[in-house]
Amino acid sequence: MDEGHCVLRLEMARYTGAMMSARNWFALLAVLLIGSCGTAQFYSQALGGQMEIWRKSRPNADVRADPAVPVDVKRRLEFIEELRAFAARELDLPTKSFGKYCDLKRPYVVWVVFAAPEFSVEAKRWWYPLVGSLKYRGFFNEKDAKEEGERLKQQGLDVFVGGVEAYSTLGYFKDPVLNTFLHRSDFELAELVFHELTHAKLFIPGDTDFNEAFATANAENGVRRWLRSKGDLKGLAAYEAKLKKSREVIHLLLNTREKLRGVYASTHASVETERLAKQRVFEDMLKQALKIRPNVSVSQKHTVTAAQKWNNARLNTVAAYYTMVPGFERLLGKHGGSLEAFYREVSAMRKLSNEERMRILGVDAR
Length: 366
Hints:
A hairpin with a 3-residue loop joins strand 4 and strand 5 (132-134). The protein starts with a helix and ends in a 6-residue tail after the last helix. It is mainly alpha-helical. The protein has helices at 3-11, 26-34, 40-56, 60-65, 71-90, 142-154, 186-201, 208-229, 233-265, 271-292, 300-308, 312-322, 325-334, 339-348, 354-360; strands at residues 57-59, 100-102, 110-117, 126-128, 132-134, 137-139, 157-164, 177-178. A three-stranded mixed β-sheet has the order 1-2-8. Strands 6-3-7 form a three-stranded antiparallel β-sheet. The protein has a two-stranded antiparallel sheet with strand order 4-5.
């Protein structure tokens, strides 16, 4: 891996590939259950993958009592039980999930495909029953995901394929703890658990950005509350510092997306000149990334190579999670941190259009 690419990869581990979620893969199962026709192979793999998870899941208590299970796994399950109790007691989140453990013997539970036109920041969408249109498509087999990615590339689209450590069936089923995310730090694991449980609290079909930003903002707030409840002020300071550093990268990526929007709206002499303008935006992004991580050096010969690993589709994996987060944080602050009032106002937005929700949250609806 070249150093320039590494700069952003290190900071983005929590939300591209690792944390970016195909959290809504209940959509895939739902299609099968209601009897879809057409892409039978796609839906078949989805059902098979979900059934594998159910088949390999065991109650946490049984796993913790099993002498063959590593001690570190048992400790992480105990920690998750602590988080579930806190989520129910202090965050008013449904906690029927994470009561079982599933070891899939692989690093990711699914692989997700994002796509976008070569000269547009607007994501390609796929439609699913019950959950509406989503900005990604997922596979339980990496080979299938990469093949789908190649097919989309042949259509001239920008494509990003990444592994996903966690997802949610939105409260329809009892999702287990997965081996794929047990390696996370306490902060990251708490954030993940609260994030997934938030999806079960509220999910609006067809609005990926709203759902992911709500879960992100609520999870981060949950981690802060959890640390304060433990009196862990040092841990809280460390968590805030980590969020601040991550926000710097997020701001850079979202700003890059807006710059590209301007490039694509401009007139160009040829397709090639537009491609070069696009390339320069990504090169500039990586140079700015070095200011965030100044300890990482990058040679000029790697700059273009690194920039070529970024495209419209990959930027959208970040936009889906964070564009609306500041708006949710403002809502929470308006209610003085009252989760009851916060949840009530957010829930009321389910009756609005996507554009109306964006306006309330202070997001440009372009």
